[in-house]
Amino acid sequence: MNQDQELRQKAINRVEEYRDIVNLDPYRLHYHIMPPVGLLNDPNGFIQWKGVYHLFYQWMPFKTGHGAKLWGHYSSTDLVNWRHEEIALTPSDWFDKNGCYSGSAIAENDVLHLFYTGNVRDGEGNRETYQCLAVSKDGISFEKQGVVARLPKGYTAHFRDPKVWKKSGSWYMVLGAQTEKLEGRAVLFQSDNLKDWQFLGDITGSNTDQLGEFGYMWECPDMFELDGKDVLIVCPQGLEAEEMLYQNVYQSGYFVGELNEQKPGFTHGDFEELDRGFDFYAPQTTKDESGRRILVAWMGVPDQDEQSQPTIQHQWVHCMTLPRELHLQNDKIVQKPVAELRTLRQNEKRAAISLNQGTEKLDIVQPDKTELFISPQLIEDSFEISFRGAARLIYNKADGIITLERNSYVDERTEARHCRLHELRDLNIFLDASAIEIFVNGGEEVFTARYFPYPGNNDVWISARKEIIVNVTSWTVA
Ligand code: FRU
Fold it and tell me: 187 near 179, Cβ under 8 Å?
């Protein structure tokens, strides 16, 4: 067996060996994508091709930690039911031997192309980086084509995560980078044939014309057109927390503006965070065959204390967010769970809850797989929803602040994330066994988090300090 075959066989054996242990985990997710075993991080190569959605992911099947990543592969015809496919890429060549790192997919001439970063450590442990290509005619088995772009001068080997797209007959690739002065950047390459790539330069970054100091490294950029504007999503590392902003270890957000490919540059507005919760990173988007711009992100953040997550005992860790459709409203990204998710709604229940200084338990049968839609009709002061004793959502009308609290999986202490709202119109909440996604005001703000309720605590409470009237619709997600 060669190295590639060996890694594949080893991964298959691990999945087999730990299937029951993973399945027995009460925190195993019911409708979020998770790894069959081991660690999952970034979504990769997200594309709809010949009617089928392909979502690859950074996968470490051999332990619940990071390392030389493979590309795992899920496919779906409806963004709801996913099938685990055979491994797409293994770190088995000189140019990717320490990891087939993140990247993207495009289709051209009936061939699916994957662009990814080959992570390499030399004999002394120094990092090398290569941008690589692999192709497939059936979307399942891929043939590596080797290195297509190398590290330009002026950057460190933290240079990765190619996202490729076509514009006016030409191909472009944006990458996350770090300059030798340790500044995070997004850089642009161009190609006419997908094989020969030319470095065009920086388009924006820390200490450029448009930004002051803004992180020592930028990861996982994504550049696309949305409702007539250009959007750059990027994950800067090294931002200091500011009031309610930048509370996680690393950030994930976007700039709206205009990309100039000819004289490479991106004129843009301020950085906006994509998510207000605890666990959101490395989002990737694709434009599907119906023209929607859909985003999926890793429900995790690098360099957090992931070894304290209770799923580690069951030999797996992390998951993806639900797929979300993006739009721009007044230069702000709005995220909505894709419409297909409604096909999972069963057992609809409606309640009009009116409370005055009181508490009421919601009539929810399976809070580990429930969708809620809550629209307040009257809020005199504040109200909160408590989820299975493990998380709380609190809205305070007077100061216009909405807060998500959870019990830390590290030390059980309460931790909180906040954001400001002009008003609260509605909440669309997805509860899975160990994940919560809260879409506020039709997706103007989103809180994404893992949470780990004690099995057996199934109560969802709503309570108010003064008067509230809220309509609640709930469904079992089946
Ligand atoms: C982001 C990231 C990427 C890299 C990948 C490795 O989470 O660090 O920059 O390609 O993960 O798994």
Answer: no
- Most informative mutation of 219, 237, 306, 320 for ligand 1 (most atoms within 8 A of CB): 219
Distance 387 CA to ligand 1 centre (A): 31
Ligand 1: residues within 6 Å at CB? 41-42, 58, 69, 101-102, 117, 160-161, 219-220, 281-282, 302
Q: For the chain, give the mean pLDDT.
A: 97
Of ligand 1's atoms, which has the minimum distance to the CA of residue 102? 10
pLDDT in tens, 167-201: 999 999 999 999 999 999 999 999 999 999 999 99
- Which two tokens mark 453? 């309720």
| Ligand 1 atom closest to residue 161's alpha carbon, by position in its atom list | 10
What's the Cα-to-Cα distance from 323 to each of 286, 342, 374, 416, rounded to whole Å?
10, 12, 21, 25
Q: How far is the CA of 36 from the centre of ligand 1 (A)?
A: 19
- φ and ψ of 23, to 5 deg: -65, -30
Can you give the C-alpha Rg of the chain in angstroms?
22
Q: How many angstroms separate the CA atoms of 206 and 182, rounded?
A: 9
State pTM to two decimals.
0.98
Report residue 161's pLDDT band, with 50, 70 and 90 as the boundaries.
Answer: very high
Q: From the CA of 438, how far away is ligand 1's center (Å)?
A: 25
Non-local CB neighbours of 290 within 8 Å, separated by 6+ positions: none
| Full DSSP string of 398-422 | TTTEEEEEEE-TTT--EEEEEEE-S
Q: What is the pLDDT of residues 252-262, one digit of tens each?
A: 999 999 999 99
Atom index in ligand 1 nearest the CA of residue 176 equals 9
175: CA distance to ligand 1 center in Å? 12
Residue range 257-288, pLDDT digits in tens: 999 999 999 999 999 999 999 999 999 999 99
List pLDDT tens digits, range 440-474. 999 999 999 999 999 899 999 999 999 999 999 99
411 is catalytic: no
Q: Which two tokens stand for residue 229?
A: 């504007």
Residue written as tokens 């991964």?
11
